Amino acid sequence: MGAHDIGVSTKGLSRRQFLKASAAVAASAAALSTFGCAPQAKVEENKEHALPTNLEEGGTWVPAACWHNCGGRCVNKVMVKEGVVVRQKTDDSHEDSAEYPQQRGCVRGKAQQQQCFGADRILHPLKRKGWQPGGGENSNGAMRGKDEWEVISWDEAIELSCQEIKRISDEYGPTGFYCKSPDATINVMCGCVRGWDTTSHGTYTLGSDMIGLPGTDIGKANDRFDMMNAEYVVMYSSNPTWSAAGTPTYYFIQAKEAGVKFVTVDPMYNASAQMLDADWIPVRNGTDMAFMLATAYEMLRLDEEEGDIVDWDFLNAYTVGFDADHMPDDAKLSENLKDYVQGVYDGTPKTPEWAEPICGVPPEQVTEFARILGKNNKTYLLHNYGMVRCNGSEMIPQMLMALGAMGGHMGKSGHACGGAYHANCGNYGPNLVTAGNAKKPKTTNPVSTGVRQPQLYDIILEGGGEVLDVSNSYANFHEPIPTTLGPIKGIFHVTDATLQTSLHQKAGIEAHRAVDFVLTRAQFMTTNAVYSDIILPVTTEWERPGGVTTCNREFVYCYSKVTDPIGESKTDQEIGVLLLEGMGMDPALAYDTSETQQFFEQIAGSKIMGKSGEMEPLVTITDADIAEWGVEGEAQEGVISLADFVANGGYQFKRTPDDGYGFIGYEDFVTDPEANPLPSASGKLEIYCQARYDLMASFQYDGIEQFKPYPTYVVPCVGYESTFKDGAIGGEKGEYPYIMYNPHYLRRSHSVFDNCPWLRETWANPVFLNRQDAKEKGIEEGDTVLISAPAGQGLRTAAILDILMPGVVGVPHGAWVDVDEKTGIDRAGSDNYLIGAQYGGMGVSGYNNQICNVEKYDGEALAPDCDWPQRIVSA
Ligand SMILES: Nc1nc2c(c(=O)[nH]1)N[C@H]1C(S)=C(S)[C@@H](COP(=O)(O)OP(=O)(O)OC[C@H]3O[C@@H](n4cnc5c(=O)[nH]c(N)nc54)[C@H](O)[C@@H]3O)O[C@H]1N2
Ligand SMILES: Nc1nc2c(c(=O)[nH]1)N[C@H]1C(S)=C(S)[C@@H](COP(=O)(O)OP(=O)(O)OC[C@H]3O[C@@H](n4cnc5c(=O)[nH]c(N)nc54)[C@H](O)[C@@H]3O)O[C@H]1N2
Ligand code: SF4
Ligand SMILES: [Mo]
Fold this sequence. Notes:
binds ligand MGD, binds molybdenum atom, 17% strand, 27 helices, Dimethylsulfoxide Reductase, domain 2, Rossmann fold, 4 domains
């Protein structure tokens, strides 16, 4: 396939046929309205437009993007015929084998056509009827989320937006705006205060390097082939079957088939554990520290009584702070983990019996786990990050690393200790192929202030105030700078679903109603869009020239355009150019090349591990290719032609177990710690870490004084203790007796896909309840349940499980909030509507140990989500 045909366009085709197959049919819908009305009929109408049976004749397979933050990064091919997707498949570019696996996608990926061609795509720029530029009364902010919409032209949308942005800029300067993650347009146009959150990696976000781990503890577990050499793989707070669908799950299945035994430590006997027939250690969410301390206690006890459990040689050579004889030079406190665990300081040995009331793990299971971590077992201690998205989980990174070190599970084949996250889950090592850079101009936000996300809503509502400038980027911490912020009057939403995915959504909605202007670029009526004033319709990746993504160490995906932009939607770059022009600025400051040129740069800059051990160009590009693409560039020699790279959908590095590209995390450090020191002050694994403690303490968040520079049990600001009336475990239960967590859920990638009817039909979005708890509350399967938390209330139907610990309630992450304005109850069961703004310690977003109550709802029962109307604004 020639490069120029990668984008199959609708030009010259029957527009009618295109409309039939795509959801652009929505354009014919009746009156302009808020979104709650017409749609289901439209969906039905859509279904009726059955396509002819000889679908494939004349169709072209196009590698199509699956661009979501879902942990997969898979191949997703669509057959395009006359601008319409008529078939969809995944990777079949080669025979599937364990060594050379196809990069297969999941069911969500197959529903992608309902993203691009969804009946609910926003087709035109929209303006909230009651809003006018000028601020104050003009903005009529209280109507956000309730008002009607009107279609406006692009010219009008850009003019109104720029007029208001200029006004706010002139009056308040760049801190007059807020955007969680600003892009080049915002940086150049006006700047903004940005939000900071610990999201994915929880407390590993802060100073993992200071304790000697890689940033966020990612990259030091072993290559996938080595997993077969383990005897045990511990999946700590890890559910790749849901959170890393696609290839990662396949690696775990292979290990299972090779005879590896799996152990899961999790409040739920999750889908991965079931698939891998794992032994289940049920731990109450947010209480892992108690379980881990007791495990350390048992390892020490068993070592003393039976021997051969603790790897003292490893601890002594590679760590500091485990015992009094191996303290780091910079320690300000002469305390250590071993003495704490054995009760030297507080007279309380951290025995399994001490831990049980907190974490709920039967003592004999702690002992069993301590044996599995023993030094003579080949054990992988892999973790995901649910357990560090908890209040009070600040020291879990140090403790988990300490357990790994106690068993000596680093630097050797069959042993590992580290993060198993997202698309690289189960497969670490240097990349063997990488995607090139699109080479866009570097832009800088004129405001360096990054404020904790929930604190921002308060700042907006209070018209400014004192904040701690924590960081201006996600993983770029510095000592906090006290900063005074003035009023924030404008909010931009770009490629985050901020109002949906940040905690304290209720305050977020109020904050959105308090400002003068909310501008959102959206594909659908997302939560951000619902509470906006102007919505600019943005394309999906399927409607752009294409791109290259590094998916995992062995695979780069090259995806191409599937269709022309739907409706009047434009790409983010096109919108950025219009906005900058509207502001009287030079768009080239943000975008100086075409999107096709950027795609080309990504291809040209893609690299492959060469025989020399250096990364070399991956794709062969000829002068003819450059002329055909109409881009600037130079010919180069690689291992695959440009045409094949684009047609195949990228390149997969062919692996074999003995190819020399295997990887054992920490191997170089363990072989020669002097020559290969870790990034910590001592160069070793710091079980006691002064630097990380000092950085944390400098934030001066509430409760920091409870922590020590080494792992101890700390009562969180909100957590299991808060489910009791007087905060003491074992006492009378309080108003919110359950402990809630937010599994990342199959139906969605965060908030994305929640609108997709096929997926709504495939997976309900229930609340997970333990059977005994449900019985006590008189709740039966399918009943509508009212979930009440201090911050808000939501509804969901009950899914009653035997595989969830008693006292634990699971509210899946990412449902699009749907507030009943009369009752203030959210019908959709949005996780963040139930979560408040409290934080302590290092300021972690405690998604997984919030408190709640559940009861049978006595109002109207919920209809299944798949029967809810889609949010369609039609013109
Ligand atoms: N309570 C609770 N909250 C959580 C979590 C939790 O476990 N519990 N998890 C947290 C975690 S780990 C994460 S990573 C965050 C994720 O938080 P977000 O990154 O905010 O989540 P997404 O839903 O992926 O948001 C992506 C948005 O970008 C839009 N989009 C997609 N493509 C384009 C495009 O090309 N252009 C534009 N302009 N927009 C586009 C999508 O429609 C979607 O609205 O959520 C966090 N929030
Ligand atoms: N389908 C889908 N896949 C996704 C995403 C998505 O939204 N949807 N999001 C992606 C992103 S950005 C991220 S960050 C990852 C998140 O990936 P994960 O961190 O793996 O996701 P979670 O489901 O939050 O948590 C994993 C497991 O931890 C358990 N758990 C929760 N709290 C605790 C606790 O306190 N202690 C212990 N021991 N276990 C606990 C949960 O029961 C769950 O089985 O997923 C990625 N993949
Ligand atoms: S796991 Fe993610 S990238 Fe892979 S097919 Fe599913 S949605 Fe797409
Ligand atoms: Mo994440």
